[in-house]
Design a protein that fits this description.
Blueprint: H1 6-13, H2 28-41, E1 71-79, E2 87-94, E3 99-103, H3 110-118, E4 122-130, E5 133-134, H4 140-145, E6 148-151, H5 163-170, H6 179-188, H7 190-194, H8 205-217, E7 223-227, H9 235-250, E8 254-258, H10 262-268, E9 271-276, E10 279-284, H11 286-291, H12 293-299
Parallel strand pairs: 3-8, 3-9, 6-7, 7-8
Antiparallel strand pairs: 1-2, 1-4, 4-5, 9-10
Amino acid sequence: MRYEGTGRLRHEYFCQKETARCDARLPDSDFEQAIGRYRATHSPGKQAGGFRPECAFRTNPEGGKLSEPFLIGDAMSGGYGKGPNILHDCTVAVNPGEIAVIVGPNGAGKSTAMKAVFGMLDVREGAVRLDGEDITALSPQDRVAKGMAFVPQTSNIFTSMTVEENLEMGAFLRRDDISGTMEQVFDLFPILRDKRGQAAGELSGGQRQQVAVGRSLMTQPRVLMLDEPTAGVSPIVMDELFDRIIEVARTGISILMVEQNARQALAIADKGYVLVQGRNRFTDTGEALLADPEVRKSFLGG
């Protein structure tokens, strides 16, 4: 049975058919019903057809409910260099197989929170823990070795290298056979198989994002962190990327994502964090945040 994710939902309920526009909206009640139908038929226990986690990607070996989130940036305060704090007692977390989304207005500290979790700025107060281990003092490189992968918003591919060489670079820490993982990336993003010998810099924006995500998956991560993966792409490409993100989460990989398309991102999110000026303003399930009148009015355009 073919897996149908948010792309179908977007095209049926939000996109003007046969166009690249995505500004059509349902009444709130219809939107909630659509999300309810989606969640009922795509529960976290269902596997995406054709995507086989046992082939290459690492999955959570334990199962069951964890006493603490698998990855948590706990009460983080910090900023860049010697500058002032941008984050103030900020907490974000995600469990295996979940999608956690960070949204908020421009300048809210969304990407900063993501970078703090990945070790790209000083966490002056609070802590970052992965699978119960305090990794606050670890470098980003050491966090990659622990099973974290980060895809920045820009400058996230080697433009002069081929698609296949980019994917190979993602496996630089591995000493085992990477061919199975590469085939799985090609199954996830079929266009990359067709363009495997082409320079990545010649690809479209959406295809470049696929290369960036695919390269991060080559590390066999336990946590995949995405900083605005749909920035600058068309609505149709956005739908496709969200579909693929859902497929990756179905394998047990934790997804922590900053996203500018808040309404669409919360529709696929198990947990959502709304940040304002570096602080947690709202924290709840994606479904609950979409239904919250204040969140709708202030952050989702009513």
